């Protein structure tokens, strides 16, 4: 355990950020699963709405450094490509 006050604070802040980042990633994964279900059901309108929401969530996570910007771009690109297969 840390003895210095600033180190103790960093431990608390890191734990809080870890929880927020984990929550953000989990939310994105949940929406991606819903998107996959919509695509497999050939429900274009629902999938398109979900893709828009996913893009917003992924870009937010990228901006907040939860995920790397290249990873975010790759995920959005692949999901868009997947949507275009049923268009």
Summarize the structure.
This protein has 3 helices and no strands. With 87 residues, the chain is an all-alpha fold. The protein starts with a helix and ends with a helix.
Write up this protein.
The protein has 87 residues and is mainly α. The protein has a domain at 26-84: Methane Monooxygenase Hydroxylase, Chain G, domain 1. Helices cover 83% and strands 0% of the residues. It is built from three helices and no strands. α1 runs antiparallel to α2 (44-63) and α2 packs antiparallel against α3 (69-84).
Can you name the CATH architecture of the domain at 26-84? Up-down Bundle
Topology-level CATH name of the domain at 26-84: Methane Monooxygenase Hydroxylase, Chain G, domain 1
Q: Can you identify the CATH superfamily of the domain at 26-84?
A: Ribosomal protein S20
The pLDDT mean sits at: 97
Strand content: under 5%
Structural class: mainly alpha
Q: What is the number of beta strands?
A: 0
* Global geometry: elongated
Uncertain stretches: none
Distance between the termini: 56 Å
The CATH class assignment of the domain at 26-84 is Mainly Alpha
- Using only CA atoms, what is the Rg? 17 Å
Q: How would you spell out the order of helices and strands?
A: HHH
């Amino acid at each position: 355990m840390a003895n210095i006050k600033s180190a103790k604070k960093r431990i608390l802040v890191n734990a809080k950020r870890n929880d927020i980042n984990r929550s953000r990633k989990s939310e994105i994964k949940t929406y991606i699963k819903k998107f996959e279900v919509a695509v497999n059901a050939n429900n274009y309108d629902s999938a398109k709405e979900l893709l828009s929401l996913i893009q917003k969530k992924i870009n937010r996570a990228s901006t907040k450094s939860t995920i790397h910007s290249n990873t975010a771009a790759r995920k959005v690109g692949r999901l868009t490509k997947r949507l275009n297969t049923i268009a």
